[in-house]
C-alpha cells in the first residue's frame, strides 16, 4: 500500500483524488477477498 509520502511526488494530485483512489482500492480489495 503506497504511503502518503509517495503521493508527495505528485503535487498535482489533489487530496480528493487520493481519497477517491484509496476508496476504490479498498473496495477492489474487498471484492477480491470475496471472490476467493
3D structure, described in words:
This protein has 36 residues and is mainly alpha-helical. The protein has one domain (4-35). The chain contains two helices and no strands. It has helices at 4-7, 15-35. It starts with a helix and ends with a helix.
Helix fraction by DSSP (H/I, runs of at least 4): 55-70%
Element order: H for helix, E for strand: HH
Structural class: mainly alpha
Extended strand count: 0
Instruction: Name the quaternary structure.
Output: single chain
How many strands, which pairing sense, and closed or not: the largest β-sheet? Answer: none
Figure out the total of helices.
2
Strand and helix map with partners:
Elements (H helix, E strand, L loop, with lengths): L3 H4 L7 H21 L1
Condensed summary:
The protein is mainly alpha-helical and 36 residues long. It has helices spanning 4-7, 15-35.
Give descriptors for this structure.
36 residues, mainly alpha, 2 helices, 69% helix, elongated
